[in-house]
Specification:
Elements lengths: L2 H6 L5 H4 L3 H17 L14 H11 L3 H17 L1 H6 E7 L2 E6 L2 H9 L1 H12 L6 E6 L1
Parallel strand pairs: 2-3
Antiparallel strand pairs: 1-2
Length: 141
């Protein structure tokens, strides 16, 4: 394969082939460096930037501790969201995969909570975040 046909295979280097000697080497070097550095492509300055909160959440998810943190936040906010009377009649049992399980002491309170479940879910999502709780399940006990 002759030198000229070799350079014609590369589309970007065809302009460089016509030059000779030192000018040719300099032009080839400049083109290779532009290709290597990605000249002409705008850099995304936010590409690999993370906030400390994002890093902590990623670590907690990797260690499978995130649900435990959410559960402790839920227990702290439950009485505020549900109210004192309902808070004394119920207890958050678990929070797994966005499903909150509540233990209810009295059947009449369970019936009342079944009727107001959508409103309770909205208030919980406002307090803890929309992605934290997606469903509420009530158990008598």
């Amino acid at each position: 394969m002759s030198g000229g046909s070799h350079w014609r295979r590369f589309g970007r280097l065809t302009k460089v082939v016509r030059r000779r000697g030192a000018a040719r080497r300099k032009a080839i070097r400049a083109q290779v460096l532009r290709d290597f550095r990605g000249a002409g492509e705008p850099l995304d300055l936010e590409a690999n930037v993370s906030t400390p909160a994002d890093i902590i959440n990623d670590v907690l998810k990797d260690l499978k501790l995130a649900e435990g943190v959410e559960e402790s936040r839920l227990r702290g906010a439950w009485t505020q969201v549900a109210g004192d009377f309902v808070g004394r009649q119920t207890e958050p049992v678990s929070l797994r995969n966005g499903k909150l399980t509540l233990r209810v002491i009295q059947p009449s309170m369970r019936f009342h909570l079944e009727q107001t479940k959508k409103d309770l879910l909205k208030r919980l999502q406002q307090e803890l975040g929309a992605n934290t709780i997606r469903e509420v399940h009530l158990v008598l006990g």
